[in-house]
Design brief:
Distance between the termini: 12 Å
Strand content: 25-35%
Number of strands: 7
Largest sheet: 7 strands, mixed
CATH class: Alpha Beta
Number of domains: 1
Order of helices and strands: EHEHEEHEEEHH
CATH architecture: Alpha-Beta Complex
Mean pLDDT: 95
Bound molecules: inosinic acid
Structural class: alpha/beta
Radius of gyration: 17 Å
CATH topology: Maf protein
Number of helices: 5
């Protein structure tokens, strides 16, 4: 039996996501981003659910490579905004998806609303030998009144997970991974992989 780590293509070009997932995976699994796999492609996210967008990304890469791979799609769901921006989180302030503009729009929409309840939801789509399996991870929390912290990415400066007293962007990656939606979804993927070795 070989001790070599099992390699999976992670259908993303988001290095932040790859770093977070690498910190969660032990030595048994190794991920390789699209760039690292030499795949130059920008996969669209045309659907209205995280599940369908995640499937679009993993299916596209599986069809290209015929190799086991996974993707993930994440949305920030804000209760007082009826679950928006949700699946449109990346493009909330427009198709170009500038992070600062997305955050500004969200804070503006919430304005003085005292209901700051929100959650991050991640859906992983894993394709193994052509068959898809999905894993969900949710992190409950609240939207802060202003940005804080320089770490992380996306909406991290305004999201405080339940049980913490500072934003994701004020945490180290290891601290974020105590609470993280992505971590919870990846743990389910790892359990599946370990059970089905
Ligand atoms: P996507 O999953 O790459 O489509 O991301 C959707 C949007 O949510 C983008 O604006 C990301 O920057 C943001 N996002 C995804 N994951 C996280 C996270 O862990 N923290 C903060 N923002 C995130």
């Amino acid at each position: 039996m070989s001790n070599a780590a099992r390699q999976l293509i992670f259908a993303t070009n988001n290095q932040h996501k790859a770093n977070e997932i690498n910190a969660i995976l032990g030595a048994t699994y190794k991920i390789c981003t699209l760039r690292e796999a030499g795949i130059e492609i920008d996969i669209p996210e045309p659907h209205d659910t995280l599940e369908a967008n995640a499937r679009e990304k993993s299916t596209t890469i599986f069809n290209l490579t015929q190799t086991d791979c996974f993707s993930e799609d994440t949305g920030l769901e804000v209760a007082a905004l009826g679950g928006a921006p949700g699946v449109r989180s990346a493009r909330y302030a427009g198709e170009q998806g500038k992070t600062a503009e997305n955050i500004a729009k969200l804070l503006n929409e919430l304005a003085a609303n005292k209901n700051r309840k929100a959650r991050f939801r991640t859906v992983i789509s894993f394709i193994e030998k052509g068959i898809e399996h999905q894993f969900e991870g949710i992190c409950e929390g609240m939207i802060d009144w202003h940005c804080s912290g320089d770490n992380g990415f996306g909406y991290d400066p305004i999201f405080i997970p339940t049980g913490a007293s500072k934003s994701f962007a004020s945490m180290t990656m290891e601290e974020k991974n105590i609470y993280s939606h992505r971590k919870k979804a990846v743990e389910k993927l790892i359990s599946y992989l370990n059970l089905n070795k």
